[in-house]
């Protein structure tokens, strides 16, 4: 049956990078038999300008009716002074909540060809391939009660609540174990079980969930040690699974191990593996409209979509191999360019990936 993809370019470089990813999808359709249809929607500042809201109902309806969403990025200088409830970023949060995307998958992959882009020694990071699975709709970012209250002594007190139910932990655990089965079969669950009761329970539930996956090796690590290990010896990890806040911090740290923000895709999945796929970077207003943006993170997001929602792993492999081949050819957008390589623009990079896919 034909699958449907909602395409939301968004703002800034979102327009340019999504155009390249759509070119890749069209080649998969015409040359390799991918059975999908695509429909565009508005989100972010562009949607606000056109409709007065960063997430029009028509866009949310389109996304809910689709199997997968391909998103560019939202935000930009133009919309920074808007009231917070209509800022572009609200469009993104509304999509995540409206589609119940509770599992955020953030791979940190360092292509050996780009080992010099990292601030860490090449031998520490070359060939790095970690998958961070972050719980996205629970934990301290959403827990109640929350707020700032006045104490009897007149002082203000800020408070938030870290809360997880067992079912929230087991469903994110299942996502992590399922992914590990497709990789090196190792899961490291990151918590702070020595201090926080909530994450002590997290650890117990992970152990229970892990019993259904006897082939996967489960380990546990306190978050402070995990942060240290990520910069000391990151290649020890395969899949890391953790809470919303710990995942927020650790996934940015892992992304920066690679040193190339324009290379990293992400996925956010619901309970039925329906998902939103997007690069981890923002709308880069400083380079928007100049054909300078690196489209590879967005093209690699399409590969994740093929693997995790559309169940077309061979096509995902084809994209990833093509990206590898293009890097081997020495082709680089400005953000990953080094002496001796060929500097190319956004559109030529998209064309190069397509040429390599056709082989
Ligand atoms: P950013 O990721 O947009 O840019 C950070 C730096 O990285 C910039 O110098 C930019 O030029 C560069 N960069 C980013 N992506 C690149 C690419 N594909 N190719 C080449 N260079 C790239 O982060 P920022 O500057 O902090 O934020 C800009 C806007 O994006 C803000 O409005 C922010 O709110 C928004 N934002 C959106 C998302 C999202 O849509 N998911 C994520 C982060 C930030």
TrEMBL record:
InterPro entries: IsoCit/isopropylmalate_DH_CS (IPR019818), IsoPropMal-DH-like_dom (IPR024084), Isopropylmalate_DH (IPR004429). It catalyses: (2R,3S)-3-isopropylmalate + NAD(+) = 4-methyl-2-oxopentanoate + CO2 + NADH. It is an enzyme of class 1 (oxidoreductase). Mg(2+) binds at residues 224, 248, 252. Its main location: cytoplasm. Binds 1 Mg(2+) or Mn(2+) ion per subunit. It is found in: Cytoplasm. This is 3-isopropylmalate dehydrogenase. It comes from Solemya pervernicosa gill symbiont.
């Amino acid at each position: 049956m034909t699958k449907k993809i909602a395409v939301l370019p968004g703002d800034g470089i979102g327009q340019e990078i999504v155009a390249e990813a759509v070119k890749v999808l069209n080649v998969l359709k015409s040359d390799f038999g991918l059975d999908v249809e695509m429909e565009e929607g508005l989100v972010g500042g562009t949607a606000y300008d056109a409709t007065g809201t960063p997430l029009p109902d028509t866009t949310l309806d389109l996304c809910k009716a689709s199997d997968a969403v391909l998103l560019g990025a939202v935000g930009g200088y133009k919309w920074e002074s808007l009231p917070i409830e209509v800022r572009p970023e609200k469009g993104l949060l509304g999509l995540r909540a409206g589609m119940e995307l509770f599992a955020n998958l953030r791979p940190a992959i360092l292509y050996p060809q780009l080992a010099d882009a990292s601030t860490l020694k090449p031998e520490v990071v070359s060939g790095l391939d970690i998958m961070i699975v972050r719980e996205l709709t629970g934990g301290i970012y959403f827990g109640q009660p929350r707020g700032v209250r006045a104490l009897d002594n007149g002082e203000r007190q800020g408070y938030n609540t870290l809360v997880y139910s067992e079912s929230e932990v087991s469903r994110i655990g299942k996502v992590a174990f399922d992914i590990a089965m497709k990789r090196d079969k190792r899961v490291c669950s990151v918590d702070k079980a020595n201090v926080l009761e909530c994450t002590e329970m997290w650890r117990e539930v992970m152990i229970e969930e892990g019993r259904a996956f006897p082939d996967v090796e489960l380990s546990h690590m306190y978050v402070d040690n995990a942060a240290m290990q990520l910069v000391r010896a990151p290649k020890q990890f395969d899949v890391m699974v953790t809470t919303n806040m710990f995942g927020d911090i650790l996934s940015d740290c892992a992304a920066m191990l690679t040193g190339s923000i324009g290379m990293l895709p992400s996925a956010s999945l619901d309970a039925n593996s329906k998902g939103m796929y997007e690069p981890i970077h923002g709308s880069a207003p400083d380079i928007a409209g100049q054909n300078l943006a690196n489209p590879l993170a967005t093209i690699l997001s399409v590969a994740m979509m093929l693997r995790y929602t559309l169940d077309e792993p061979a096509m995902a492999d084809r994209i990833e191999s093509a990206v590898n081949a293009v890097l081997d050819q020495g082709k680089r957008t400005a953000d990953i360019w080094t002496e001796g390589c060929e500097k190319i623009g956004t559109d030529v990079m998209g064309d190069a990936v397509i040429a390599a896919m056709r082989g």
